[in-house]
Q: What sequence folds into this?
């Protein structure tokens, strides 16, 4: 099973600050890494697919990069509505797996 | 528009079984795999498996094999997950999610609202 490890576990940031979240895979997964945002009491929402591909309707301040075993989600100029937990997810190998999550709090 | 609507919250005793439904609309039900993901209170996301509604082929995560059954009823565009021999640590919100196809294969691009299953004596 592919293990995804996110860092940091928790991020406390001020509005307009840039946020970077890293996801490391225990083995190479090519580009099959996706990012989700989950707000309290809501279902996960797909932000980025295949490491860097944007999703229609998602603000352009969200971007992804990376390949192989190391991936990054970047939020440029954080807004208050971005307070949430962010998860990475791989669909290269079965079983599919998720990172443990990174909680982003607004100061 | 694509919608996945799940059944309501359940409270079960240890050792019992639970069956959660997921009714799809707004797309061709047999054209997309349905995945099930659960989330224990305050915890992360745990992938449980998938079902291909067209072929009825299923894949279960090893952790749940022997206790989980995923089924579908194409006549009413619904998918189901049944988990047996429930334990308190099965308490979680259970989500169904639709996988994309072609250029979005491998992505979970639509989710149900979640069903809270509480296991308590």
A:
């Amino acid at each position: 099973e592919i293990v995804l490890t996110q860092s940091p576990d928790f991020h406390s940031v001020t509005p307009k600050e840039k946020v970077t979240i890293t996801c490391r895979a225990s083995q190479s997964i090519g580009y099959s890494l996706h990012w989700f945002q989950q707000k309290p009491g809501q279902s996960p929402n797909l932000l980025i697919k295949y490491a860097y591909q944007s999703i229609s309707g998602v603000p352009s301040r969200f971007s992804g990069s990376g390949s192989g075993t190391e991936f990054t989600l970047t939020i440029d100029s954080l807004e208050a509505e971005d307070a949430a937990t962010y998860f990475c997810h791989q669909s290269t190998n079965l079983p599919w797996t998720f990172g443990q999550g990174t909680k982003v709090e607004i100061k | 528009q694509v919608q996945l609507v799940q059944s309501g919250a359940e409270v079960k005793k240890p050792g019992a079984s639970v069956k959660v439904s997921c009714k799809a609309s707004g797309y061709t039900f047999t054209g997309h795999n349905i995945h099930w993901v659960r989330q224990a209170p305050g915890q992360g996301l745990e992938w449980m498996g998938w079902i291909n509604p067209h072929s009825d082929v299923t894949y279960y995560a090893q952790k749940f094999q022997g206790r989980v059954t995923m089924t579908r009823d194409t006549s009413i565009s619904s998918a189901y997950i049944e988990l047996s021999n429930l334990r308190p640590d099965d308490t979680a919100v259970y989500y169904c999610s639709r996988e994309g196809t072609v250029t979005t294969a491998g992505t979970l691009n639509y989710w149900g609202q979640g069903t809270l299953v509480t296991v308590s004596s």
Remarks:
- Chain A is about 0% helix and 50% strand.
- Chain A has a mean pLDDT of 96.
- The longest strand of chain A covers residues 19-25.
- The interface with chain B takes residues 32, 34, 36, 38, 43-46, 49-50, 55, 87, 89, 91-92, 94-101 of chain A (CB under 8 Å).
